[in-house]
Amino acid sequence: MARRSRLDGLRGALRAIERIPQAMDAARTETLNEWADAVQNTAEDRVPRDKGDLWQALDQRVNTHFGRAEVGVWDPDQLEYAMYVEKGTSKMGDQPFLVPAFNEHRRQVTRTYRAAFRRHMGGG
């Protein structure tokens, strides 16, 4: 009887191990998307809205294949202006919106990933 329960426990452990790669991929995708959404929303809240539509040019790119998420401005009409706003010029002070948004959400990535991995492994 003891031998049977050991085998059942081993089978369960092996099934759990087989689920690890899929759980890691799903947790990574979930984390990348959640982080990009959070950074984009924070940057949109921080960006000055007194002139132009810079806040509407903020966008995110998530590449789950390479495990990469980016938030920024890729619109060529807004790109140069975005840099001037973020870094300032000799005639205009800086009004950073992207770097503070990245910094604000940097620490959440590890916690978000761990929680998502546990959920995808069936651990709640």
Describe what you observe in this structure.
- The radius of gyration is 21 Å and the shape is elongated.
- Helix 1 (2-46) runs antiparallel to helix 4.
- It is mainly alpha-helical and 124 residues long.
- The longest helix has 45 residues, at 2-46.
- It is built from 5 helices and 2 strands.
- The model has no long low-confidence stretch (mean pLDDT 90).
- Strands 1-2 form a two-stranded antiparallel sheet.
- The protein has helices at residues 2-46, 54-57, 76-87, 98-105, 108-120; strands at residues 58-63, 68-73.
- The chain is 66% helix and 10% strand.
- A hairpin with a 4-residue loop joins strand 1 (58-63) and strand 2.
- The chain has one domain (21-120).
Report the helical percentage.
Answer: 55-70%
Radius of gyration: 21 Å
Count the E strands.
2
Please report the number of helical segments. Answer: 5
Overall mean pLDDT stands at 90
Helix/strand structural class: mainly alpha
Write the element-wise H/E pattern from the N-terminal end onward.
HHEEHHH
- Uncertain runs are none
Largest sheet: 2 strands, antiparallel
How many separate structural domains? 1
Overall, the morphology is elongated
Protein name: HK97-gp10 family putative phage morphogenesis protein
